[in-house]
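Thread: "does anyone have the structure for this chain?"

Original post by V.I.:
We have the sequence but no experimental structure in hand. Need at least a predicted one for the grant figures.
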Amino acid sequence: MKKKPHESKAQKRALRHFQQAGTAAAAARERKFGPTKAQSAAARHNLATARKDVALRRKHKRLPAKKAKLSPYEVNCCAAEALAASLRLGTGAPVSAEEMLALYFRVSGPEEGAGLAELLLLTSQRGLAGWFPSWRPAPAPAPGAVAMWDWWEHAATVHPAGGIISWGEILPWPGEPDEMWDITWCR
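Reply from O.Q.:
Generated one for you, tokens below.
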């Protein structure tokens, strides 16, 4: 309530009393006769909007908020990065961080992590940077193969000179992987 220079305290008190009485009268009228048509329509609209919002949140619960720009280093997406590294190594095709994160978030949430088999299946259906993988279990480490270590909770790509490629760095071979896939990329 904005104070006007010509209002006295008594005038403000009378105005406040009038407003409260109007609110009380509207509440009494609603108790006696029920809500007005406009109030009922507004309530139905609000309920429908809330239901749509809940349905959308359930449908897209694995997707991050659109406003939040995440980098690959902020989520647990080493398996998607390993697939991208395998594609880069095998074809020389560039894979952007946005493409890699889009692949990852179709399978998992920011903190959950995604399995190699799930990502390979999705990549074979949708592709990654326009390339599609064909894969088979790898009996031995081969350049471009993607390996997963459960004890390490990490996936990486086998480097041609030995070792692994993890997040762009060449690291020594960490031991026998729990799963390893030999991947061939095609358009």
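V.I.: this helps a lot. Strands lie at 132-137, 146-149, 154-158, 164-166, 169-171, 179-186.
O.Q.: and Residues 63-67 have pLDDT under 50 and may be disordered.
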